[in-house]
Structures are given as structure tokens and as C-alpha cells.
Amino acid sequence: MSLSALPTRWLLPMCGSVLLLGACTQLPTESVNTTSLTAERHTLVAPDTTGYEFRPAADPNGISKYYQGRQIAHVMGHEGADWLERPDRNQEEGTDILLRELQLKPTDVVADLGAGTGYFTFRMAPLVPQGKVLAVDIQPEMLAAIQQNKVKQHVTNVEAVKGTTQNPNLPANQVDLVLLVDAYHEFDYPREMMRAVRASLTPTGRVALVEYRAEDPSVPIKRLHKLSIDQARKEMAAVGLEFVESVEALPQQHLMFFRRAK
What we know:
This protein has helices at 35-43, 81-84, 89-93, 95-102, 121-124, 140-153, 190-200, 229-237; strands at 14-15, 18-19, 52-54, 62-67, 70-73, 109-113, 132-137, 158-162, 175-181, 201-213, 226-227, 241-247, 253-260. It is an alpha/beta fold.
């Protein structure tokens, strides 16, 4: 999720990876504008354009690209890594509740798509001791952080996977759960990504989509960084994923489950 999505109380000026109040005025740039991602977009195969529109950005927190009527939000760069590991995240987002509601089995193969620094990756790893967690990200800096955390925590069932903006590079028909936490709304190619996710699922595999509740105006997150259940269902149905249920146990987010359509 982009730093621009955060409540005002979180938007302290940042220098490097340390929060220094008043020390600088420039927020980290968003990775949607970085040279590496721009170069990647020029080398990828032509996407499936179904459902996409290109028009001026109605909201400055998003890009000039729309999917199923939804403006796509900007992406958070690796400069915001410290925010992903903030000490009060567990309480604010109900991390323990989310992990419980995933109902993971010890042998599950889980993909943490948009893993960032691995906040959820390393909390899921002990829950699948005979399985593994595939930590997927497109930014080398995030993947390097995951590798460092893997060594530091002596974790053996985590694999870092470099994805692209169109493909998470997951193994076909082998993933029991794909977890996306506050990431999907930033995908430049949501249709291509979720079609690839669908192909990665086992016959009983699930997608767990976690997004801030767009229906709730009291959730202090900018509009483009929220997603309603109706919009999520519409976009998942477009790639052959059917809605199973929404668990509304988290403080501010939907936890929506999907599976392959019959």
C-alpha cells in the first residue's frame, strides 16, 4: 500500500529508513515511477486488455489506468519498508486474528503475494512446518530484506520469489492459499496477475484478499487504497474466481476468500 494512503497521523516526514520529525520534507517516491519498473513494462508481452481503460487520473493517488471501473492506486516503494514493520501494526490490523482466520494446515503451500519485508511471511511459516511460504515481490530491495530476515530468524521453509507486474511466477496447481494484504488495489495488471494466481491454485486452493473497507467512511485510509466487497467480487469473477465468504473480524479490513469457479 502506498504511503499516500496512510492517515495523516502516520505521514511523518521520512529520511531514508528512519522517521525524523521535521528533518526533511520529501516523502519516499512511489515505485510506479521508478526506472526499473518502467523498463520492465516496456519488455513484457502485450497484456489482455479486457476490462481496462486509460484516461486522465481522476484521483492523484492513482494512475491513469482503470480496471472494471476502478482507478488503480500508486504502488509503495521499498523506501516505506519500515512502515510495514511498525510496532503497532498487529493491534491496528488485527494480525493475530487474520492468521487464525486463514485456518492454515501444517502441510499447506502458501504464497504471500506482495510480501514486502515478509511481515506475514514469517508469521505464517511456523503455521506450515511441513509446507512452505512463497514470499513474492517485484522489488529486489524487498526480496533482499526477506532473505536477510530468513537468515536472521533461522527459517527454512520460506522461499523468496521475484514476480513481475503481470505474473507472480508461482508454480501451477500447487498453492493451497494465496494471501494478498493491502496489495491488490495497486496492481498495474490486476487481470493478468489474478489469472496467474488462479492457475497456481490446487483444486481446493483459496485466495485470501485483505483490503481496507471502502464501505466504511470511518476507516482513515484514502479512497483508492480501499476496496469494497462488491468491487472485489466483480474483479475476481472476471478471472474465474468465485466468492466464498467475507470474514469481518478485522478492525478496519475485509478478509475475503475466493476459489476457482466451478
